[in-house]
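Subject: Sanity check before I submit

Could someone independently write out the structure tokens for this chain? I want to compare against mine line by line before I put it in a report. The sequence has 317 residues.
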Amino acid sequence: MLVTVLSSPHVPRIARSGVLLMVLAVGLSAFGVGCSDGSESRGESDSTEPVGIGKEVTVPISAAVATVVSAGAEPRSLLRPDYPAGTVQQVTLRTDHHIEQQINDQPPSDFSTPALTIPMTAQTDGDGVELTLGTISTPDPSLAKALTAADGSHAGFDMSELGGITALRLAPAPDTSNTARAALEQAFYQAVYRSITFPDQPVGEGAVWTVRQEVDGGVALDQVTTATLTKREDDRLTIELEVTQKPKSQVWSLPNNAGTLDIRDYVMQGSGTITVDLGLPLPVAGSITVGGHQAYRDPRSASMLQQTINTQVTWNE
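---
Independent answer below. Compare away.
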């Protein structure tokens, strides 16, 4: 979850600012979470040495706090995941991430990352969910080639009793390149921050609750997800989601002591619907789209970076 900032004290201020803003633009993601090492490029060859060969990386996820706004209609009950260890589910995750940026008066540039479709087998254990990834597909030929080595990679979620994800575990196959690894990391971060946490009190159809969570990455964000339980059939729940994000500060302190950027504008919001089964660990269906625009200013040169972002996360069995 790092953004690599290229800078040199010998580069003139205006030129340095342009390079800095360009690199930041590539490193930012739609949810304010990093994609990996921003020094990688999408065109990286398959010969790139993978990072952390044979090692699993665990990333803690900030706590999500659910608050009931309306308890909904009777009958009401506690919403709790209820699956025994060893429960198996086949599910497919798809992520689409589009980003367009403009620096000062330069023409806009497209820095979108290729869509990923990730089939996986989920199996529950005492701590959460273990994921075995199948054959991953993407419309980008270069990334598709890099992803062939990622078949059979593993991931996992540690879960709270309220269904929230408390940690993300990633263990790509040993031959997975940095390019493929970064793409997988971004896809799973997007999925994590579009997940839902249940409230800690009984609710019925029509219930509304909010989930507050800090999204900590390039820019620290306060994220509020408003969930509405629109339908319940036994253990199958249909939940409408509305998401908003706001920066925790109007100044972004850049990594590696590279200075600061003023956040001049930040609007990120979206909505969608997911279907979850309390007897299964992952959503069985649904799609959530979040998008908006952002503007950052380098106070040392007055260079301005503007971004338009749109990201979609989709689940299917």
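---
OP: Matches mine. For the report I'm noting this point. The radius of gyration is 20 Å.
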